[in-house]
From TrEMBL:
It comes from Comamonas testosteroni (Pseudomonas testosteroni). Belongs to the UPF0065 (bug) family. It holds the Pfam family TctC. This is Tricarboxylate transport protein TctC. InterPro entries: BUG, Bug_dom1.
Amino acid sequence: MAYFVNVRMVVAASCIVAGVTGGSIARAQPYPSKPVTLVVPYSAGGPTDVVARTLGAAMSKSLGQTVIVENRTGAGGTIAAAYTARAKPDGYTFLIHHNGMATAPALYRKLNYKPLEDFEYVSQVIDVPMTLVGRKDLPAKDFKELMAYAKANGDKVNFAHAGLGAVSHLCSVLLRQAMGVDMTTVPFPGTGPAMNAVLGGQVDLLCDQTTSTTPYVKAGSVRLYGVTTNTRLKSLPNTPTLAEQGLSSFQIVVWHGIYAPKGTPKDAVEKFGAALKGAFKDPVVAQRLADLGAIVPSDDKLTPASLRSWLEQETQRYSPVIKAAGQFAD
Ligand code: ASP
């Protein structure tokens, strides 16, 4: 009997001890103590997703917890941003987004989050050029021929994009203006599926980041008509820029940032930012990003303050242009 009493007492006592120390262990556990979600506003397989997964894998190693990429698509990236703005600010939800964070306030009249107020700003990420690609069996072999083909076929030519607010949409609008041809645009939830439609021959053209198009270009499975930078790319040295092929001053470079819900603990923001910086120093990641044409910003740009001020500048730059064009997404 005494034995059983003792066992019960020992068990009870150890439960109390476990409860107390378990509680204090939980409180003292260093961040992160469970997987961290990185929200991507576009489909799997697209360029934003490729960047998130490449960096996320390297960051998982240094954080000691998996970075889970979650694709929340729709409304040109605004669904993912709204979701992140309202997520629990506990350090376990982050968002990677591009220029769309700066264009959304002018494009969407009913935007239910404020890009310049509702977030913690973690870091700028990478700058990525775009490419104009087409289905492999498109009769036009180069940009000059594409110009003639587009003029002859007008709105029979289909131009895929990732929704209003996506950079592929912005690029298609600017290209249609610059080429003087009103081609038909076809929206997808991301340029991953848009690229599949190009590969399958269901759409004709797509303007997309090199982080997605480079492998298809190198495999010869799409036609490549030009790059959107003002100088040629190291990763695609034989490809002329669109500017040198007649679209003078045509230039789009996609920038990215990482955000967290407003109120996320500073420690979590700093650790996630430090893991990102570390990922850029990983030689395998650095080589992969270089091969895909991405440019890693200098260290002084990999800070919360730098992202916040860049977002503000970009918002001010796009806003009057979009308003003057009378373009709304809603
Ligand atoms: N490249 C896309 C865009 O046009 C998005 C994506 O699928 O990553 O914004």
